[in-house]
């Protein structure tokens, strides 16, 4: 009888332990923060990442953000596990003491941002921006581009009239003629170009422009399998977009209200393939770190930047 009770007890204990293990696996959650771009929206839409993470025991929660600074603040606070943002906001965040790691990035795409002017011939060169009203978003990739573009012709921000506006407000001001130029990134730049406005210059040959993906030390340490899956699925989606951007463009149209043909043009200006950071990407980040500090857009250099780059 005692032997039977012992066997029964062991079997019951085994069932409980298996149930607890199953429950723990089911309770693992990956919280993905994202800004709307072709890669993240197609990744969210096709379900491949969620299927793969489900096999690893994770559920997925998606949260949308409108700016690089807000999504990185959420990552830093532990509210999300993954984020995507461009290079300048991330370096500014690190300089303020935030803590996260670069886990993957896309190739430099300087044609994704530029300086817009009216197509009336009144401004045909960067030199002719002197004394003009220029709209841009403060402490952003736009300000970084403007400072460096002006420097190519020995001008500074003191030589122009800065008009600090959000992209939406800058768009209205530019269309109404309240400012002479607008420093902006895509898709705003391509939308404005489609209305007949002129790109005075892109960032090509002036500054690099990279998009990165991020996670936290804590999440990476305990969930390397999820991080690898995330990066690999991002890469697959990016390759699909580079091959044929039509599906991504249609999804973007549904989510943003901006016409698919605008998105096709915009996506053609970049490579959407994400990969682990190579030496070129790391060198660009270090250069950005030093540039932002030198021109006063950050108050502190990010020390030991390599410690913020994940090497799988």
From TrEMBL:
Belongs to the bacterial solute-binding protein SsuA/TauA family. Part of a binding-protein-dependent transport system for aliphatic sulfonates. Putative binding protein. CDD domains: PBP2_SsuA. GO terms for cellular component: membrane; periplasmic space. SUPFAM superfamilies: Periplasmic binding protein-like II (SSF53850). Residues 29-259 form the Solute-binding protein family 3/N-terminal domain. Its main location: periplasm. This is Putative aliphatic sulfonates-binding protein. Pfam families: NMT1 (PF09084). Keywords: Signal, Transport.
């Amino acid at each position: 009888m005692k032997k039977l009770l012992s066997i029964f007890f062991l079997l019951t204990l085994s069932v409980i332990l298996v149930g607890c293990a199953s429950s723990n696996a089911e309770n693992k959650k990956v919280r993905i923060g994202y800004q709307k771009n072709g890669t993240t929206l197609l990744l969210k839409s096709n379900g491949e990442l969620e299927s793969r993470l489900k096999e690893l025991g994770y559920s997925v929660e998606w949260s949308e953000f409108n700016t690089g600074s807000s999504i990185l603040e959420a990552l830093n606070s532990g509210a999300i596990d993954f984020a995507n943002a461009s290079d300048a906001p991330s370096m500014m965040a690190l300089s303020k003491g935030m803590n996260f790691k670069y886990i993957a990035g896309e190739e430099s795409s300087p044609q994704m941002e530029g300086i817009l002017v009216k197509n009336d011939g009144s401004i045909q060169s960067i030199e002719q921006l002197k004394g003009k009203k220029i709209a841009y978003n403060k402490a952003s990739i736009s300000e970084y581009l403007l400072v460096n573009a002006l420097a190519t012709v020995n001008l500074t921000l003191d030589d122009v009239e800065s008009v600090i506006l959000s992209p939406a407000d800058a768009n209205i001001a530019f269309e109404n003629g309240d400012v002479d130029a607008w420093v902006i990134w895509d898709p705003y730049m391509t939308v404005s170009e489609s209305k007949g406005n002129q790109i005075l210059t892109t960032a090509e040959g002036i500054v690099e422009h990279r998009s990165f993906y991020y996670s936290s030390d804590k999440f990476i340490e305990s969930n390397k399998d999820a991080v690898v899956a995330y990066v690999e699925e991002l890469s697959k989606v990016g390759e699909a977009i580079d091959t044929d951007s039509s599906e991504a463009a249609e999804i973007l149209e549904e989510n943003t209200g901006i016409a698919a043909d605008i998105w096709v043009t915009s996506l053609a200006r970049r490579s959407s393939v994400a990969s682990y950071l190579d030496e070129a990407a790391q060198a660009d980040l270090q250069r950005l770190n030093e540039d932002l500090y030198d021109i006063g857009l950050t108050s502190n250099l990010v020390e030991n930047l390599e410690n913020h780059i994940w090497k799988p």
